[in-house]
Design the sequence.
């Protein structure tokens, strides 16, 4: 079900289905991309989507050191989601996600998280910590 997450003074305060009563002329809106936009395609391509089977596997999200292109008064780092993928499926996942640059796109990074400013995968900014296997 679509919803809006409402933040006040940097704190997550509520989720609402309709925010029209909150809107003011001095507000600005932004959209965030989401791994959920690609789930159906991944299922059709036989790529396991563990977060659909077990809530514990929900994708982790981290603030990276990859900067967004600034515009007007807005600037900041990209938030990236981390969905563990077995090495044996990695090329296939990249090929699939690359076909959808407008709503998911290929991974921004593959490999060690420190390269994009994530020192510890246990320090999740949003979502839940995932287990990353050796492969």
Sequence:
């Amino acid at each position: 079900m679509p919803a809006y997450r409402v933040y006040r003074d940097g704190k997550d305060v509520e989720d609402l289905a309709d925010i029209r009563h909150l809107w003011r002329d001095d507000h600005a809106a932004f959209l965030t991309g989401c791994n959920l936009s690609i789930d159906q395609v991944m299922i059709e391509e036989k790529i396991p989507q563990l977060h659909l089977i077990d809530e514990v596997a929900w994708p982790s999200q981290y603030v990276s050191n990859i900067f967004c292109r600034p515009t007007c008064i807005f600037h900041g780092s990209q938030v990236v989601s981390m969905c563990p993928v077995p090495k044996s499926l990695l090329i296939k996942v990249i090929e699939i996600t690359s076909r959808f640059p407008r709503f998911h796109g290929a991974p921004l990074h593959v490999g060690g998280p420190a390269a994009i400013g994530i020192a510890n995968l246990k320090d999740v900014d949003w979502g839940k910590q995932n287990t990353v296997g050796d492969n």
About this structure: The chain has three helices and four strands. The helical segments are 39-44, 50-53, 87-98. The chain has a mean pLDDT of 85. The radius of gyration is 17 Å.
